[in-house]
Design brief:
By secondary structure, the chain is mainly β. The chain has a single domain, classed as Calycin beta-barrel core domain (Lipocalin). The chain contains 1 helix and 10 strands, in the order H-E-E-E-E-E-E-E-E-E-E.
């Protein structure tokens, strides 16, 4: 009888042992982000400047300029830690908020922090050599609506990382 009771548990352990976790992407796969990016709509310009990825992190600054005045800035980083890759945002120099990489689908990187008010998800998608889309999303409890930024590489920006 005891053998029959243990059979489902043993089967579950064997199945999980046979299905390894997908490999963690290398930081170098984020090299497409390196350089300066910009988008402008109705007099509002949004910019991000990313460093080339190092062995365990890459860094960025972002700002929004509306009608000739800086209205927002943030410090950003993507870092590889022992347990996962994280996108870390510090809007207006506030304490950092971590968003864990939960999925990489082709050219899209999805970072999440379900406990954060807004955003709960940050996505970056490479859409061409000189274009990418960044998207911030909430959930049904979020007052803010999703925002999408369609960036173009800034003139003169280089994306050469070694």
């Amino acid at each position: 009888m005891k053998t029959l009771a243990l059979a489902p548990l043993l089967a579950a352990v064997l199945v999980s042992a046979e299905t390894p976790a997908p490999p963690r992407p290398a930081m170098t796969e984020l090299a497409f982000l390196a350089g300066s990016w910009e988008t402008e709509t109705d007099g509002v310009r949004v910019e991000e400047q990313w460093t080339c990825p190092g062995p365990d992190a890459m860094y960025a600054t972002g700002r929004t300029i509306a009608h000739g005045k800086t209205v927002f800035f943030e410090f950003l980083r993507i870092e590889s830690r022992a347990d996962a890759i994280y996108y870390v945002a510090q809007p207006k120099g506030k304490p950092p908020t971590d968003f864990r990489l939960v999925r990489k689908d082709g050219e899209t990187w999805v970072f999440e922090n379900p406990a954060h008010d807004f955003p709960k998800r940050i996505l970056y998608t490479k859409t061409g050599d000189d274009s990418l889309v960044a998207r911030v999303e909430g959930d049904a409890s979020s007052k803010e609506k999703a925002e999408e930024f369609r960036y173009r590489r800034s003139p003169g920006s280089s994306a050469r990382c070694r």
